[in-house]
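Deviations from the work plan: none for this task. Representative record:
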Amino acid sequence: MMTNRWPLLVFALVVAAVPLIPGVPPFWLVLLDNIGLAALVAMGLVLLTGVGGLTSFGQAAFCGFGAYTTAVLTVSYGFSPWLTLPLSLLVSGIAAVVLGIVTVRLSGHYLPLGTIAWGIGLFYLFSKLEFLGRNDGISGIPPLSIGSFRMLSPGTIYYAIWIAVLASAVLTMNLLDSRTGRAIRALRRGHIAAEAFGVQAPRAKLLVFIYAAVLAGLSGWLYAHFQRAANPTPFGAQAGIEYLFIAVVGGAGYVWGAVLGAGIVVILKEVLQSYLPYIFGGQSQLETIVFGILLVLLLQLAPTGVWPWLISWLPIKFGRKHPDTALTLPARVRSPTAPSVLLQIDNARKQFGGVIAVNDVSFDVQAREIVALIGPNGAGKSTTFNLITGVLTATGGSISVLGKNVDNAPPQEVVKLGVARTFQHVKLVPDMTVLENVAIGAHLRGSSGAISSMFRLDRADEAKLLAEAARQIERVGLGDQIGQLAGSLSLGQQRIVEIARALCVDPVLLLLDEPAAGLRLMEKQRLAALLRQLRDGGMSVLLVEHDMGFVMDIADRVVVLDFGTKIAEGTPEAIKTNPEVIKAYLGAAA
Amino acid sequence: MLFLIQDGITNGAIYALLGLALVLVFAVTRVILIPQGEFVTYGALSYAMLSAGHIPGTAWLALAMGVVAFALDLFAARSALRLKAVGRAVALNIALPLAILALTYSLAGSKTPIAVNIVLALLIVAAIGLFLYRIAFQPIAHTSVLVLLIASVGCHLALQGLGLVFFGAEGLRGPALSTASFTVGPLNFTGQSIAVYSVTIAFIVALWLFFGHTLMGKALRATAVNRLGARLVGIRTTLSGQIAFLLASVIGAISGILIVPITTLYYDTGFLIGLKGFIAAIIGGLVSYPLTAVAALVVGTVEAFSSFYASNFKEVIVFTLIIPVLVLRSLAAPAVEEEKD
């Protein structure tokens, strides 16, 4: 995210100095401990909900797994607390795998609702199981200790908590600023674009789910040794909801938003709890009323959370280094005996219920060829694209790429064969820069995983990916926009960004869905020149386009669809005079 | 066995009502209505207090919320204040809750007939539901489902806290709607359970008619599918939202009034009841009314059986019931991509 580490260092020093200030009330340290604990869970939610788009109400239950694991092992079996740390994380992680496999498959609104359900279910399970002490929980948990130094006071465990918070924040930011991180960030806008470039969407979702659960488990482990007791109450649905609050109040897409949100919510609750009774007399639960009202008010004033609002007021701008384009990625391995037919479509058919969107269409694309697929709206052009790229499965017929049958291949497999595409409705991540968006295209050409990214062991790999992305951006002529957010570009430019992203695959076949729509004349001419240059470089292009001037200018061959059926195929000259085509476009002469 | 099923169906009918309300609100406004449970307790406990001859604090809450809503209306229309608009705002936000409050004071007493108390409780909660939308949700109606959800949680907290202030920590029960009862074979039907069944069925039919066969109902559905599109064809989306909340609060209050004679309700009971309605609504996929109703009956029955055979794990069983259903649902769901914001 940021190359500038100074703010982080300053923050860490301030955090480290707080307990050393003479006369700091211990109560403040307790509050700061609570903020740190909540921030850890919220940080997981930032990744899960804010970045990955998966809303979970069940994070408190994962804290419960962490806390109860260490509670049972230290109290009943005499384990050392440090030994239970990996075990706590492991148990939370395993719980996340089990719940995640079931839950992350859920789409849309089912997901948050599903997490509420198992969140509550687990809470009741914690409070009913004998070996977890039922409602009373487990007490007498030993404190953390290093040698003979025992972290008994809120001021000593403070360091353990905040080291965990800062370390997690750094690891999380490293993860987000990497190949895996881009894949995760692309998920929120839907999985189709990400999958078209080889991202295994379910696996990426499961990954963030586990990551968030492990952070929550860490918070639970710390909590158990901080409170020296574990009971079901802090792991219930209410707490799960509160963690989500914290993330949303702070700013659900921002790692530091989690820390800020935790600070706001914990302090606000504390202030309300201790001062409201003075103002309004001893009314109980008054703080929940005010808390609820303030929350609604805050959301109305800053629906995206406080952190982005705060950042917009700060004079610091986080710059990023321009990638070093001298680095190169090795080209994708191509079979030396590549057949001359790149794409062969044989009687492909797609039915949606009774509607035949693609009706036994056959055509092929040869090497070094630009083929245009044209036809009136609703002719089945985009559906054909989706069949080729594996987004949809054909009802009948067969499609093969480089002689390999791809009838049932998922998009991730098709792209591995060197087929890259753009989308009719632009599918970029608007709050990622052009560079980051384009780098998603090179996803399969990198190999660093989540763990190496977190510890910054991916930098060499990452630099090459970004260099490749930057080169493709230069190639399509958007070098000046490289650092801008994709959402801030014009629609025409966004289409070009999609082409750059597709080029990052190092494809043999480029599928372009209406690339010229929204472009100005000059831009169209540049695009045509680029496509010709690509073809001359050995790439083939299959494009859907409505701009006939553009199509007839660059296509070597044109295939015409109407109502799902192929009505003509030939050179642009032949197509222009074909009576069937004229009829389809202009209607029969009266 | 049979009495467990009967018990389950009675509970399930209530969950069905709440599930319907949740589906309704979600479909129209995208708000996952966590405070639905508060509508239940407010309705039930207001009714119980009225029956005991007291004035429930909710009547004052309705007035207070009306004043806030009025202020918001004025602020929203500040650049184009016209007498007619102000007049309407006064009538809806000030005069209406004031009238309800006055009515409550003049009619409340220990000898007030049950029917009057019911109507009063319904009026109060309906006004609260209406103003709740105006105050909390209308200003952020365009934001994401997540933000709406968090706002919804905020409302739940505030309303539940207020519930404690109004009704105290003690549980209340209300008088039964009818004391009649009869026996069929081994089963004993009370007038109350018959009322539960008939009200539920009446609501399902009424909602089906409303959404399928009236212009207003169709407008609400259109809003649900596409807010912008609905606005472009002249549907007032704010009005749709208000109607959805109005219906939801009335349905919630009715459910509360139906169960408060059977079980003791506390100020915070609503949350769990609402959540079970939720489960039914989710199983119904948040879109289908008949499916939600059937699912609610299943939830009620499972609850009845598990509380008999494994009462300790009753909630665990009920809440995990949902997971296999969800998995099946998302497996069956087509792989279409939803455009998210």
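Chain B has one domain: 2-175+187-332.
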